[in-house]
What we know:
By secondary structure, the protein is mainly beta. It has no helices and eleven strands. It has strands spanning 3-7, 10-13, 18-25, 34-39, 46-51, 58-60, 68-73, 78-83, 92-99, 102-103, 107-112.
Amino acid sequence: QLQLVESGGGSVQAGGSLKLSCTTAGLRFGNVAMFWFRQAPGKVLEWVSSISSIGGATSYADSVKGRFTISRENAKATVYLQMNSLKTEDTAVYYCATDRETRGQGTQVTVSS
């Protein structure tokens, strides 16, 4: 059974940092691309970042480029999202995912001014 479990969210002041983790089970982790999405209150789900299965090629939404870093540790079946220089507009529930429809339960990130 597929499991995606996010952790590491919390409350931080603008300019601060957080590192999200997503541990997985029930999939051949090394063979799949992984994604981070987020959803702010009253807004649609937004793609944040992705990392390929082979080679670890990364992509970022323009809104987070240069501030967020996605990485993966295949031996631990875990994907990370390092978030630096956080802004109030980064406040959202963050989900790791294998695709847009297959996501974990999410972890709340709140950035205050």
